[in-house]
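User: Hey, my collaborator sent me this sequence without any context and asked if I could get a structure. I don't really work with proteins. Can you help?
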Amino acid sequence: MSVRILFERELQNRGLRYTIDIESGRHAIEVGARQLLVSLDNLQRDVERDGDTERVSRFVDSIAGATSVSAGLCSADRLYWCVEPNDYEDMASFRVPLSDRVDRALVHLSADGQLITWATPDMLEALGLSESDASSRGFTNLARRLTESTIEYEEVDGVQLGFIDTPLPFKASFILAPNLREVVASALGWPLMAVVPDRDFLYIWAARHSDFIERVGDVVVREFSQASYPISTEVYEITDTGVRAIGEFPTGA
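Assistant: No problem. I've predicted the 3D structure and written it out in structure-token form, which is a compact way to encode the shape of the chain:
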């Protein structure tokens, strides 16, 4: 049975009304007072990869959870800056370009950590936050979550390669954390290089080991190609002045 049929059956079983958006072909789902446009592309890719059709039910769970946001249960403590590709049909209300392919977007994470939603002007108004205040909270919350995470390292070809273990579903965004140097510099050095092929994938290492870029290329392209939420095959340099892309691995696409 197709993912689309399973998805629509789940919606019907839960009493969630939907139509098909004519322009995009996506499902337009009524959740509370809101309408969500949902693409099944990532879900389809996940199910094809591992055969787990229960993903469909869990995906609908996350959509149903959007009622917490629409009901005004959003929190300033769950605003984050998140690294996202800039090729979405619907762009985030609050975003800042990081490179030709990637933005940082202000998002809200649901209380159960499952649903990531673009922050909107209405959401900020409900929270009583200006855009500047919300931006600050996004960085502060990201820094807090980095502090709460476990930083792991592995020596590869004489280079300390860093990983981050966190329940946050977008660990790639830690390249934006204002306390990144404070947390990792003693073990890795500073400045850093980083790759973030997937929303939940991050490698970091000392920028002085520039030759190590070649070592991670195959992994980056493979992760990007197979990811449910791909970001970019770019390589980033992280310094005291910010994050910038210094190149990218070709995907062959």
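In plain terms: The chain has a mean pLDDT of 89. You can pass these tokens on to your collaborator as they are.
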